[in-house]
Backbone:
């Protein structure tokens, strides 16, 4: 159980990767479990000799995209309005309506024009909406911004466009967004409300545990974020702190 798997990792992740390969060598089922949303996660796995069956991410789990396979999206696939003018560029492209900048398309690093995010601006030039794309070829998140430039609301989507999660934010005294509410929509026919990401993560770990018919072992690898959620699981499982 960890927070993420990045393109550049610490010894925690490298130890996990070696452990996964050791389990696979001996025919023992094992998965890396990650919490954070990552639009390039499934492009990162092959770099370390891993595949989709060896990882389950919390957002993938609720979006039903753990093993999703799609096609990369490019600017032309966004179907922007016909009267918008799209510029050129290797890293990003401006989208204008006449002289006004209405948006900007950003590409993912290490790719040839694959869409990573699209920023949209109001007539005063303020960022109002950021669309974030999974590199497997679908819009994964809408992030909404207020006039103060701070994000206050997010919506998470499946490849078919259906929404499965809403996240709300309030401003701290330092004027930074603090997640104040998470709403998991229509999960097995019900809506679930969580005050913070850790509570949602505990719920996910319990649901993940229930998804198999065996007694699972959960190894908390990154102490700051994994120990408490693993200990708070109320479903029957073996729990280890590493």
Residues:
């Amino acid at each position: 159980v960890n927070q993420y798997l990045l393109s550049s990792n610490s010894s925690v992740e490298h130890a996990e990767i070696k452990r996964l390969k050791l389990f696979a060598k001996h025919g023992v089922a094992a998965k890396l479990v990650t919490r954070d949303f990552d639009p390039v996660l499934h492009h990162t796995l092959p770099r370390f000799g891993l595949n989709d069956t060896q990882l389950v991410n919390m957002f993938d789990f609720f979006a039903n995209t753990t093993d999703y396979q799609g096609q990369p999206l490019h600017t032309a696939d966004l179907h922007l309005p016909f009267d918008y003018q799209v510029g050129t560029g290797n890293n990003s492209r401006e989208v204008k309506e006449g002289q006004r900048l209405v948006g900007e398309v950003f590409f993912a690093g290490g790719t040839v024009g694959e869409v990573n995010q699209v920023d949209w601006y109001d007539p005063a030039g303020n960022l109002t909406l950021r669309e974030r794309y999974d590199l497997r070829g679908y819009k994964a998140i809408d992030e909404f911004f207020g006039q103060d430039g701070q994000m206050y609301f997010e919506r998470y989507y499946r490849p078919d466009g259906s929404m499965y999660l809403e996240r709300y934010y309030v401003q701290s005294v330092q004027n930074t967004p603090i997640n104040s509410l998470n709403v998991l929509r229509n999960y097995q026919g019900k809506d679930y409300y969580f005050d913070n990401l850790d509570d949602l993560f505990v719920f996910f770990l319990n649901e993940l545990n229930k998804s198999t018919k065996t007694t699972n072992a959960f190894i908390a690898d990154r102490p700051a974020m994994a120990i408490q959620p693993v200990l708070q699981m109320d479903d029957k499982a073996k729990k280890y702190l590493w």
User: Anything to note?
Assistant: The chain has a mean pLDDT of 95. Residues 94 and 104 are 4 Å apart (CA to CA).
